[in-house]
Design brief:
This is Fasciclin domain-containing protein. It holds the Pfam family Fasciclin. It comes from Denitrobaculum tricleocarpae. InterPro entries: Adhesion/Biosynth-related, FAS1_dom_sf, FAS1_domain. By secondary structure, this protein is an alpha+beta fold. It has one domain: FAS1 domain. Helix content is 33%, strand content 27%. The chain contains seven helices and seven strands; from the N terminus they run αααβαααβαβββββ. It has a seven-stranded mixed sheet. α2 packs across α6.
């Protein structure tokens, strides 16, 4: 049986910051639930591109609401595979409530991020690895 989104991210080894953030935001149970979810998952390099101190600040308990908003902005209800959007552009609603601009006409861009690995399957959805942390507008 496939692992769920959280266990898949933990096992990949390139999402240590994301996993720590999901734990700090108390979103583990949500992302282990039935779903399905599509997660645009920033890798550790993506988090490292944020200004110094940003991640540490977001992980503080008093900033939990902001952290939850940022993380849920990376999650779309439903399972969207790259083949579903190939050659298309779309605005997709996130769990956070905002929208992501997805452009799959030449590679795949999500807002300002590039998908660097697509269609990482999980039991309750799919992960697409991105190179930039998405910040809600």
């Amino acid at each position: 049986m496939k692992k769920d989104i959280v266990d898949t991210a933990v096992g990949a080894g390139q999402f240590n910051t994301l996993v720590a953030a999901v734990q700090a935001a108390d979103l583990v149970d949500t992302l282990k639930s039935k779903g399905p979810f599509t997660v645009f998952a920033p890798n550790d390099d993506a988090f490292a591109k944020l200004p110094a101190g940003t991640v540490e600040n977001l992980l503080k308990p008093e900033n939990k609401d902001q952290l939850v908003a940022i993380l849920t902005y990376h999650v779309v209800p439903g399972k969207i595979m790259s083949a579903d959007i190939a050659g298309k552009t779309a605005d997709v609603a996130t769990v956070q409530g905002g929208e992501l601009a997805v452009d799959a006409t030449s590679g795949v861009k999500v807002n300002d991020a590039t998908v660097i690995a697509a269609d990482v399957g999980a039991s309750n959805g799919v992960i697409h690895v991105i190179d930039t942390v998405l910040l809600p507008k």
